[in-house]
Amino acid sequence: MWGSEFGIVSPDFEPMKKAEPSKPAPEMRAEYDFRGGIRGRYADATARDAVALVLEPDVAAAFPDAESVNRALREVLEARRGS
């Protein structure tokens, strides 16, 4: 039970209910043919080159896309180099 290791248990505590089993996925359309595909083909490059950050909502509102975030960060870096 949550918190029991610290002796903290709410009197109205109820464990979470188990999720209903999901419906099986519909059959794949005939026009989708992945036989020549390579699983994870771009995964290594993405993992190696990308950094994911979580922005606070007020900061995220100021930047419509990743390009604008990168542009602002490059300006900050350039300003720091110039000081």
Structure description:
- By secondary structure, this protein is mainly α.
- It has a domain at 53-83.
- Helix content is 35%, strand content 0%.
- It has three helices and no strands.
- The chain has helices at residues 43-49, 57-61, 66-82.
- The model has no long low-confidence stretch (mean pLDDT 80).
Number of strands: 0
Overall outline = flat
The class by helix and strand makeup works out as mainly alpha
Count of helices? Answer: 3
Strand content: under 5%
Query: How many angstroms does the end-to-end distance come to?
Result: 55 Å
Low-pLDDT runs: none
Q: What average pLDDT do the residues reach?
A: 80
Fraction in helix: 25-40%
List the helices and strands in order: HHH
Structural features:
mainly alpha
Secondary structure elements and pairings:
Elements: H1 43-49, H2 57-61, H3 66-82
Quick structural overview:
The chain has 83 residues and is mostly helical. The chain has helices at 43-49, 57-61, 66-82. The chain contains 3 helices and no strands.
